[in-house]
# Entry
Amino acid sequence: MKKILIINICLLFITNSLFSQNTLSPYSARGLGESEPFMNAYNRSLGGVMNGIRSKRSISYDNAASLGSIQNVILDFGFRGDYGKIYNETAQKTSFSGNFNYFLLGFPVLRKQELKKDSINQTKLYKTYRSIWTSAIGINPYTNFNSDYFRVKDTSYGTVVNTYSVKGGLSRAFWMNAVNITPNLSLGLTSSYIFGQKVSYKSYGLRDSLVSRIIFDDQSTQLRGFVFNLGFQYDRNKDTIVRHVKDSSGKIVETKRTPIRFVIGGTLENESQLNSTLYRTILSSSLLDSRLPTDTILNKQDERSKIPTPLTYSAGFSVTVKNKWLIAFDYRTSLLSQLNNSFYTEKFNNSQQYSFGFAYRPDVDVEYMVKSFGKQRKANLEYRMGYRFMNTGLNLIDNTGRLTNINEYGISFGIGIPKLKEYWDGKKVIMKSMINISAEYIKRGQGTKGLIAEDLYRLTIGFNLSDNWFNRRKFN
# Structure
């Protein structure tokens, strides 16, 4: 009953946030809007690395192959809050936004039963499962629009007043599937349905002492379509660094073994075509002289077209030492320069992102042993940090006429708060749940030469709940 209640609360937040703006960035007016990272609080705290993250309790959303590592049902959802400041050389503005951010329900579809020896009592066996096919469903924002612009300029003809506003956003409903080809190699596919709308309001006015004329340009673009993402992950966890400790005579007195785990992965997202339906009305009117009629200059209804999304690919790896220290790296690029459509009024370069992650994870394994029955070791916090640099691909002209690339970088910190529960024999403990908290500082653009810079402070709180839902109950 408690599980159903949690899911219903998540669905209530999702319904409320589907058409809400999750950004106040002036850059969200460009292209398809400000892209929403396809990740949870765990990946955000690691600087956005995803391809090398493979855990029994967490899923890297952008690489469906990571789904192959889970053994139980996982409910993953999170909330996000942003405090932002946009500024240039003469002015600044602060804002706050927050909303429900992501939701995922993952579960094994096909599992294989295995028997393993207890590491304390070697004569005793316990039953475990290895996932063959796993699946997940979920929803999160895809892009966001939320920007306003207002300018007043005096000329010899009168006062020119221009306003511009864009609102809306696109959402992603996704279905992930992963198949374990071998215990160490997984393939995954994410099928995403993109839907939403972009609504813009523009006005161009000329005001003098006699008459004021103004032109209104209202547009509503509804978008929908499918995007597919193919991913793979390979996990090598059998390597060990062997170090011998010798005495003064050169005799080996101790052998120390340090386990090392390597995970590599990559993704490819296809270039897709979103179906677009445009509604546009342009009106000309007078604000001071009611005798002048309101003229309809343009009236487009139900105009259909196709809008392309870019081909995107990524690759990355992680190295885990002694099941405690994690170092990870990701590279991601989107071929934005190949976009050619009347919907994109700007020219883009290919975007590139480099992400680095580091974590100290004293309880990296989902299961670990305790020395005696009923004596449970306290679970320690996980500490994470990350850094990322991104060339957004967006080019803007400054007041000197020079074309300037808009870059973005971010620094993130995070902790994981685990919850433990005893296993069937009282000697094993499994990590049932994890609260992930991520804090980020993001800087975008530059506030000189007529351009706008943005400083963003982002807090994400995620809840990762793991449990066995589909076990057969036995009654005596």
The helical segments are 2-17, 41-45.
